Amino acid sequence: MDDRLFRNAMGKFATGVTVITTELNGAVHGMTANAFMSVSLNPKLVLVSIGEKAKMLEKIQQSKKYAVNILSQDQKVLSMNFAGQLEKPVDVQFEELGGLPVIKDALAQISCQVVNEVQAGDHTLFIGEVTDIKITEQDPLLFFSGKYHQLAQNEKVETSS
């Protein structure tokens, strides 16, 4: 099977959009990713998958920590910024959570300490133990079939008994 068919099939799985951040030698680094998942409740573990060609790979390997910023529907431009899709980078407002830079007003911010690193094909899976969380009530930014989407706003449907 060819790479395009595989990518198209994987694109049929709707995901949220995250920006993974870390800090190394006083500099903030980030990348857009949708390869994120929760792994365990006890202990609280999450996983991010980083490609072998991504600059972020060595940053996380050196810092041994990362934050997951789950983006709200209003933060599409931040996703595009960290994916290198904008002609001019935008000014990003960061705050701090658990000693890590996180994106201000993200839907959720999750700081993690790396507890395991697994090579899997052309990616490295970083399993992180969650050290802190902050959430807000907003709608998520979604990604499906290579495009950004938002939740549909449904009107309340009344049913009769």
UniProtKB/TrEMBL annotation:
Per UniProt, what is one GO molecular function of this protein?
riboflavin reductase (NADPH) activity
Q: Which InterPro entries does UniProt cross-reference here?
A: Flavin_Rdtase-like_dom, NADH-dep_flavin_reductase, Split_barrel_FMN-bd
Sorted UniProt keywords? FAD, Flavoprotein, Nucleotide-binding, Oxidoreductase
Sites where the protein binds FAD: 28, 30, 32, 34-35, 49, 51, 55-56, 81, 83
- Per UniProt, NAD(+) binds at 7, 34, 123
User: Which segments constitute the Flavin reductase like domain?
Assistant: 10-150
Tell me which Gene Ontology terms the entry assigns under biological process. pyrimidine nucleobase catabolic process
Q: Which Pfam families does its entry note?
A: Flavin_Reduct (PF01613)
Please identify the protein, giving its name as recorded: Phenol 2-hydroxylase component B
Biological source species: Parageobacillus thermoglucosidasius (Geobacillus thermoglucosidasius)
The lineage, from the top, is: Bacteria, Bacillati, Bacillota, Bacilli, Bacillales
